[in-house]
Amino acid sequence: MENRPQWGSRAGFIMAAVGSAIGLGNIWRFPAVAYENGGGAFFFPYLFALLTAGIPLLIMEFTIGHKYRGSAPLSYARLSKKYEWLGWWQVAISFVISTYYAVIIAWAMSFAGFSFNLKWGDDPNGFLFGEYLKLSETPGDIGGIVPGVFIPLVIVWAVTLGILFKGIKKGIEIANKIFIPVLVVLFLIIVVRALTLDGAIAGLDAFFKPNWEMIADPKVWVAAYGQIFFSLSIGFAIMVTYSSYLPKKTDLTNSAFITGFANSGFELLAGIGVFAALGFMAAQQGVGINEVVSSGVGLAFVVFPQIINEFPALNGLFGSFFFICLTLAGLTSLISIVETFVAGVQDKFNVSRNKAVLVGGGLSAVISILFATQGGLYFLDAADYFINQFGVALAGLVQVVIVGWVLKELKNLQNHADVVSDIKLGAWWKVCLIGITPIVLGYMMIQNIITNVKDNYEGYPTSFLLYAGWGVAIAALIMGFVFMAIKKNETQTKLTIPNDKEVSQ
After folding, report:
1. pLDDT at residue 500 above 70?
2. Rounded CA gap, 444 and 97, in Å?
3. How many Cα atoms within 13 Å fall on the side-chain side of residue 251?
4. Cβ atoms 349, 489 nearer than 8 A
5. What residues form the membrane-spanning segments (predicted)?
6. pLDDT tens digits along 14-64
């Protein structure tokens, strides 16, 4: 029997899973998505998506990892040798994401320092793109390395790889047990402070006010499923990997519900905090909420510094709290992302953990330097969009189709989960995974392809998108087949896979 590392406790696993799910998107993506898709009315399709796609997929990935006791490639290979490539494809997606995700955390780390003396001045937009990122004018023009980004990037990788070197129990678990409570406490302080500002109520009213007419719009439902899917760390090997470190007797279904609702709870908290702050900013400027709503990089590094500038007292302190929150949310996610290919390399090549961290994490760290250059933001934007839309979402769709339709494994996985879980999976679980999830993800994929064939993303030149966008997404898929073709270390083929009876003992 294999000597696989384990979490110290189920609580440690859940904390790590929640840490992976709670990332930058919770803070800078969800509030704007909810606002633009019906406000308070959006919570109905969002909750429906959580219960019919998010949690069912989490349960499926938890169960695959727990039953087959391996990284994503090894777990899928044990499910069926023909589909090891699916695991490697997901690992390749994680690898791509890790290279640029680390850079965004480096930005947040820098801005946490800038907050104390409001270094961005009266023009945060000009400061971000001009003085800090030193952004080149043409997409594809790499330019030189930007020291202000490169130095914190080195720190981000030192922390991340240092934690991974420590292992599952002493590294990832302990880090999440520290980072997640600190993140929640700091963010609660920000939210409470934001709620006391002038205009906060108007901001919350804009966020929660339901536009019921939008419920009938299919795009709103697709947005809800998209938010759940991209927010929960499903579809790119993380949850399969994390659950493979669980003890045999672990309640999988309950863990999935806790993880899903904890992630959504933090998104709701982020929405309250962000819109209370946006309401304050709108009141200060004498404009409508709709004129200050933003998301992504613009919200975090332009709009929030503008809000911090307007804060009546202790603005530097609250600014640093906000960017420390971004840093912590990013780190807990980055750790989980890198762990997917560390585990994959370990299982495939039978090397020590330290060597896997050094090779996998080290290679990702070196490639991430590209995004710390003057042209880095363009590469980051294109890679992020295409690897999410045509990597994560497509891999999730393929995963559900292969497991549910081709291999017809859902019954076996259900039996395994039911043996160890208090909540038994009924027909709803299989209906969601065989019917609802693939239909919605399939529709999303078709719409994405049509949109991106008609118009270039963000108006970028076709030549640039072919290698920085489409090329990145296609390369991840090709790498899946390349790594499957590499001869597997024979010691790995003799590992025993626990059956459901063994698990129940």
Report:
1. no
2. 20
3. 12
4. yes
5. 12-31, 43-64, 85-109, 142-166, 178-204, 224-245, 257-283, 321-345, 357-380, 386-407, 427-446, 466-486
6. 999 999 999 999 999 999 999 999 999 999 999 999 999 999 999 999 999
Q: Which CA distances in Å does 111 have to 114, 149, 169, 480?
A: 5, 10, 31, 37
Q: d(Cα 167, Cα 7) in Å, to the nearest integer?
A: 10
Q: Which residues of 311-327 are buried (b: 16+ CB within 10 A; e: fewer)?
A: beeebeebbbbbbbbbb
Closest CA to 396 of 233, 221, 218: 233
Residue 325 structure tokens: 């929150």
**Other beta carbons within 10 Å of 296:** 16
DSSP string, 253-273: HHHHHHHHHHHHHHHHHHHHH
Residue 299 · residue 28 · CB < 8 Å: yes
* pTM confidence score: 0.95
Buried b (16+ CB within 10 A) or exposed e, 106-142: bbbbbbbebbeebbbeeebeebbeeebbbbbeebbee
Token couple for 272:
């309250």
Query: pLDDT digit string (tens) for 101-142?
Result: 999 999 999 999 999 999 999 999 999 999 999 999 999 999
Spatial separation of the C-alpha atoms in residues 108 and 325, rounded to whole Å? 9
DSSP letter for 21, please.
H
By C-alpha distance, which of 166, 128, 103 is closest to 331? 103
Q: Is 92 exposed, middle or buried (0-12, 13-18, 19+ CB in 10 A)?
A: buried
| Residue 337 token pair | 């992302």
What are the φ/ψ torsions at residue 145 (nearest 5 degrees)?
A: -70, 135
